[in-house]
Write the structure tokens for this entry.
Amino acid sequence: MRIATWNVNSVRARVGRIVDWLGREEVDVLAMQEIKCKDEQFPHEAFEEAGYEVVTHGLSQWNGVAIASRHPLEDIETTFAGMPGFLKGHEGPDLPLEARAIAATTGGIRIWSLYVPNGRGLQDPHYAYKLDWLEALRASTAERLAAHPEELLALTGDFNIAPLDGDVGDPTVIEGVTTHVSPAEREAFRAFEQIGLADVVRPLLPEGYTYWDYKQLRFPRNEGLRIDFVLGSKPLQDAVAGASIHREERKGDAPSDHVPVVVDLDLEDEDDDDRPMIF
């Protein structure tokens, strides 16, 4: 099975490109972020014609997440326990929840498409919201792992964190000054590893960016960030057979500022393989 995550930065603006890529790369499941449309505005027909079922969670022209799969999508969730909301200029509980998460079980795996809050600035209320959001996701995921230790679980998406210094090529992103690289954000990312998840791409691809700003020729200069990840449970880690970062998708007409991150999984049952039968 081939799964992928891609911050598409407006699905309606890039639907042809996305669907063409899905077919060309024979992707089974795609988690999308920043679809930037309401559920009823999503271009379902184009995906369905290509053989994909889609579930979406979009509330406005901002944020929004979706999952497209060649397999049935079941047990859909759009929130996790303790998920905080945000409304600029307001504090406290019961703030409106943003469209930043969707989960489904499909093809034998449990997959989340996640668009982690940006943070905006180290003194901005959005930064505290980002850290609270990540902590709630960690706690909810820890409970899931404890309850379903054998589950093939994948947290995928745009984490808006560059965990390592080598993940930063953009000279404007500076620790202590900007978000994405602050000690608290990096610790929040490591906290997922501490509960048993792992970045399943980095062992195979230790280098490579997944995002380049549109400004200042960041892509031609390769001044990017690695902020898009697939974090897998131990059973999913054991099933990984390959991984790739599709840098070429940052080129061409009207690309997203992110590129797809792809993971190949070997889910073949050991009792149902291609070995010759012995009589």
Remarks:
- The helical segments are 11-25, 44-49, 125-147, 183-194, 234-239.
